[in-house]
Amino acid sequence: MTEQFLWGSATAAYQCEGAWNEDGKGASIWDEFCHSDKNTTGITGDVSCDFYHHVEEDIRMLAEGGQNTFRFSISWSRIVPKADRVVNEKGLAFYDRVLDACEKYHVIPNVTLVHYDLPDYIGAQGGWCYPGVADEFAYYAAVVFRHYGDRIPLYVTINEPNHNAYCNYCVGNYPPNETNLQHYCQCAYNMAVCTAKAIREFRKLGLKAQIGVVQGCGPATSLLDTPDYQEAVKYCNYFCNDWILDPAIKGEYDPQLIAAVQSRGIDLSFVKEEDLAVMKDNTIDFLGQNIYSRMLVKPNTSGITAFTVNNAGNNDGSAQAARETRAIAGWFESDRDPNTKLNHWGREIFPECAYNTLMERKRRYGNIPIYVTENGHGCYDAADENGFVEDEERIEFLSNYLHYILKAKQDGVNVKGYYVWSTMDLYSWINGYKKRYGLVRVDYDDPARKRTPKKSYYWYKQFIQDHQDL
Ligand code: BG6
C-alpha cells in the first residue's frame, strides 16, 4: 500500500446499508433487537440511508470531497447468514461492488469485520459470551480474507470491543441489554480471542494487507494528581483500555489487571491456556483509535456501581441534565469539569483529549501505527429548503480535534490516517436518525434518500487540500 496519509470518513453496515433482509442476508442481533418490544422507539436500520442501493453515489461523493479512503464494515450475517455456515455468494458480491467503486474512484478501503452486528444465530446461543463465538468468527473472517485478499489493504477485526461490551453488558442499552460485570469481562475476553483467532487465519494466507482492532475510548484522566486519583485512573484504564488493548497489542494480559478483576469476584474460569497461546502469537499490525471525548474520573466515594448514557438528546447544559457517567464501587467514578461543554447527549466536548489519547498510546505501546478511525460530532442539523446544512458546529468540532491530532503526529505519534464519523448521515444506535454526524445530509423523508453535501463536506475537502504535505 502506498505511504500517503489517509484522509477519509467512516460508516458501519447496520447503520447505513438498509436492505436488512435482501439477497439472502440473515438477521443480526440488531435486526432482532430493533424488531422486538425492547426497542421502545420503534426506529430501525431496515432502510436507513440505503447505502446498499447507493454504493456508487456515496463513494463517488466521498472521492469528490478529496478523500482517499473509506472505512466501512461487512455485515457478518450477509456473508454467513445461518448457523449451518453456508456462505452467501450474493453477500460476497455486494462487497465486491463496494470494492469496485473504491477502485474506480481511487479510494483505499479500510474494512471492519464486525461493527456491533453479531449474527442473531450467535446471539441466540449467548452472543459474545458464547464460548464458541471465536471459532465462528475465525471461520467467517477466513471466508472474507480468502475472497477479498489484498483488495482490502486494511482489515479491522472488531469495532470497539470496549464500548460494545460496555453497552451490551454494563449500560444495557445495546442487545442483549444486560447489566452484568461478569458478562462484560467474558464478552471482552471472547472478543480478544476472536481477534487473535482471526489474525491466525489472516497470517496463514501471507497477504500484504494489514490487520488491526479499533478502540473506542481514550485513556482515563483526572483533574487532580493525588494518589487516590491516580488509583482511580489506573482502575478505569484496567476496565476500559488495558483489558482490551494489552492482549491485542502485547499478546498478553497484565497480571495486576487479572488480580484486580479477580478481586472483584469475577470468575475467570472462562480464560483458557490455549486461547492465551493464540493471543501471544497473533497480535495486530495497527491500532484504530476512535476519538470523541475524554474519560474523566475520580475516586469512587459513592460506593455505587452504575453506568448511564443520555439517549434522549435533551442535555440543556444545566447541572442536573443527564450525562454519560460510569462508576465501579471502590475503583472509580466519572468526574465533571464545570469548565467544559457537553453535547446534547451529555458527552463532553474536549479537543485536547485527542492529543492526550495519542500520546498515551505511544507511551504505552511505542511506535505502533495508528489510524484515527472515527472522530465526529453528533448534533441536530437544520437544513434549508434545498437540503443544505450550514453545520458550523461540526466544523468547529472537527477543526479543533484535528489541531490536536496533527500536533500529536508532529510530536512523534505514528498517525497514518484520519476518518470523520460519518461519511453521510446514518442510524445512530438507540438515538435513531435525529442525531446526525454526516458530512453529507440524507433526506430520510425522501424515499430516494437524496444526498446533499453539508458545509462541513466542503470544509473538509479544503482542509485535506491544505494538508497534502503530511
Ligand atoms: C462509535 C461507534 O462509538 O460512536 C459508531 O463506532 C457510533 O458506530 C458512534 O455511531 C457515535 O455514537 P452514537 O451513539 O452517537 O451514534
UniProtKB/TrEMBL annotation:
Presence of keyword Nucleus: no
Keyword presence, Hydrolase: yes
GO cellular component, one term: cytosol
Highest taxon, organism lineage: Bacteria
Signal sequence segment: none
Pfam families according to UniProt: Glyco_hydro_1
A GO MF term: beta-glucosidase activity
Keywords: Glycosidase, Hydrolase
Gene3D superfamilies, per the entry: Glycosidases (3.20.20.80)
Protein name: Family 1 glycosylhydrolase
